[in-house]
Design brief:
heterotrimer; A alpha+beta (about 475); B alpha/beta (about 475); C mainly alpha (about 100); A: about 475 residues; alpha+beta; Arc Repressor Mutant, subunit A; three-stranded antiparallel beta sheet; 15 helices; elongated; C: about 100 residues; mainly alpha; Histone, subunit A; about 35% helix; binds zinc ion
Amino acid sequence: MSPVEYEPVIGLEIHVQLKTKTKMFCGCELSFGDPPNTHTCPRCLGLPGSLPLPNARAIHYGLLIGMALECELAPRSIFHRKNYFYPDLPKGYQISQYDEPLCGPGRLGDVRIHRVHLEEDAAKLVHVGASGRIHASDASVVDFNRGGTPLAEIVTEPDVTSAEHAREWLTLLRTTLRQLGVSDVNMDEGSLRCDANISIRPKGETQLGTKTELKNMNSFRFIERGIRAEVARQEEILRNGEQVVQETLHFDPRTEAITSLRSKEEAHDYRYFPEPDLVPVTITSDMLDTARAALPELPAARQERFEALGLQPDTARQLAWRSELGDYFETALQANGDAGSPQAVANWVCNELVARIGDEDPAGSKAAPGAVAALAGLVERKAVTPNNAKLVLDKLVNDGGDPAQIIEAEGLGALADDGELEGIVEAALAANADAAEKIRGGNMKAIGPIIGHVMRETKGRADGGEVTRIVREKLGL
Amino acid sequence: MPTDLTAVQAAEAVRAGELSATELFDAYRERAAADDLNAYTWVADAAPTEAPPADAPLAGVPVAIKDLFCTEGVPSQAGSRILEGYLPPYTATSVARLAAAGAPLLGKTNQDEFAMGSSNENSGYGPVLNPWDRTRVPGGSSGGSAAAVAGGSAPWALGTDTGGSIRQPAALTGIVGLKPTYGAISRYGMIAFASSLDQAGPLTRTVADSALMLRHLQGADTRDMTSVGLREEIVLPTAERLDGIKLGVPEELSGEGIEPGVRDAFERSLQLAEELGATVESCKLPHAPHALSAYYILAPAECSSNLARFDGVRYGQRVEADTLMDMYTRTRHDGFGPEVKRRIMLGTYALSSGYYDAYYGRAQRVRTKIAEDFAAAFERFDFVVTPTSPSVAFELGAKTDDPLSMYLNDFCTVPMSLAGIPAISIPNGLSDGLPTGLQLAAPAFAENKLLDAAHALEAALGFQRLDQRETVA
Amino acid sequence: MIDREQVLHVARLARLELTEDEVEHMTGELSKVLGHIDKIAELDLDDVAPTSHVVTVENALRPDEPEPSLPRDVALASAPAVSDDGFLVPSPQAG
Ligand SMILES: [Zn+2]
């Protein structure tokens, strides 16, 4: 009997720091990297008598996210208190949303969204070790600068099917959020954080297995590796005939180790109740209109538009999901009438250009979009061979310039169809009589030395296909 | 003597140039400093160096402020040892508004810890004594404010009312106490007990004084999203008659549980109201008997969350310990008094997993029914009237061992708090030589009408306050 | 009604240390209060909407405009234990 095959069932919870000017419930400016505790006030320090004031822009950003994720937008939404004690939580509760979130079910790509809600971020707790200033041998310092930063929590349905899928989908989500302009979506700075709920089940089974929660993974690479490691761990447990325990886990990207975060404390009991210091948020048609008007074109729609231009789905997706590539591509298309076909330009951008600039923004490259488009056009019109065009692109990326001028200056243009090539081929056949004989005998592989000869003579300006055609013609094949 | 004047009279005298604001302040400052009722936790050293402008509406009439209000640089301890010595970096909106209108801070008044109590025996700074009888409680939680005004050491005071904390001590000390419509006055800077119920309000010698203070307290505040202000400016009451006024007397809040002497005084007042032209009929608030239960779920639940911030991290007292858990639990054990602990426990339990629906959820629904009961009553009546407190001031220590009997003191005042409607307590004559209170409640935002009716009754009752008696003596 | 175990559990949730004596008192007092409160279980409230707030205002939102923050020394002034730039607490990981 073959071993059982398992399939992962993964749901993601993403916390996104919103790029408002001020915090969720007070007027302190958001900051990154400022000295600790320089962005606080009675509200975000939870001083006695202070009250929260919800940030209108955070609500607006929440609506933008809801619209981009095709969520049902609640006509009325309320804030709840989530009660627990921790030094990074100044009021002893987090103002969050519970059973009336801002956004209900939606979808992004092939993953359904369960809900999106708004809340306030915790402060930063820095472990400082032994301190003579307090009784405890082991101390931490709390910095409330980050405390109260607006967060959108996006919760997916368990539609993610693999570690790779998770990374790919998160890329789409990140691009979408970046396009919306609601967040820096920078994992290094913690403006995008992700938890994954992971379970596995035998393929074909519909019942969900016991899930574990993998917490706070801070890069796409770690998310992928963490999920892969946890899926493998669960598979091993099940194959050994044991049970997966529902628990919260931490993935250490250095050692690939997965450890339990189970605390000694009793199970959490957050005692949610409606925040009495705040009144309900009613989503007015004005708020919806404003959000709708501010909604940019999103990656999914852009991909569709690119496909309508005749691009292959893969290319269209690559350009749409990496928005700076898409922007470059669109500028290239508009450059001039000599541009290649959209698919040709897209190929040059997605393959050759990306191979040369890596993750950098192509807008910063010396190769102007119009130049790359023109180069694609020249290749399409056989004015330059693909191989020589790559040399031209090298030059464009290094020094910039105009491809036609580079071809002219470097003598890289394809040979004109004026009999010159025919003469060179004839000379090559004569110089490689053995090879010519073999070809005549049906061994086309022997054409190598002849093409090499021609290319040497023409400095690569000859079109390989054209050379083959002439060889066949001359040998009567 | 300047201290014989009501706040309205004193403000007029100062504006007319008959009295200097500094003289007025010093007269009260001297009395407050000499207070032996334990009514104050802090008294100003001197009159403010900057006299209020000559045209300031409150003309320098000083005000005593319940310690629950944050006052920048001045101890604000909320009656709790956990906040001992706490100096807030900002001032509550209501206090700032009074100051801006020309009422400087005279002192901070003692109170039940975090406003939880009906006797002021729950203060971390010792009980307040009732000036009518120093063996008795002044009521609570604004007991210090009430004792200060009744004892004549302050012309008027600011208090807070969550389930009766202004009205009940006003009744027990023979002064006027007004709890306005929820949302009329900003809660910003008022240390929270139960956010959906807490409301600031005046404790004063007369109804007119309450009106004057309310005029300058009320108003929407951009620092408190639940504040809405009143819909019309408060005018000083002038009514002398109650012609055409219909008073509803809820059976549930005027019969069983009311002390005979208090009931007698109440019935005399109803007769007087009829003599002034009002009609008096009994009415029903069918859910009122459950109000206390709902209140003692909702208020503790909110307080259990509101008081979570007292964790020894950012302010207040801390008990040092090796672990975070021990630091938390010992700080809160030592910092909070028994009643606060009881309510935190009760509220935490009511919100905890498995109990929310049975307690918090049900209590919120009872709240709906109580608001509906009042709405129905106000279709027939202008005001609902009840005794403010079922008893006169009780002896110190009489109920400290029996929390439930202490809670039952609030049964006439809690329903109005749950409904968020305005209610005023006015002196209603004596029972066994101790003051009783008459409570009038009105629909939300009907403060002007309420003050007018209370003023007419006040005049007809002709109650002689303690400060007037002492002056006479 | 509430028993001793529940009292201890709730005290832990509320981060309240209770002495043996206090646990005993608390259990009795809370049980008595809950005995009174439990009367609301008799009411038929199935079709009644909950009231969280009596104010009718909605959408009280703040424009996203910065306001001055507190100077750090003021923010730290009331803290029981501070480092140069923050609030000192026993480390949550310890113990
Ligand atoms: Zn702030």
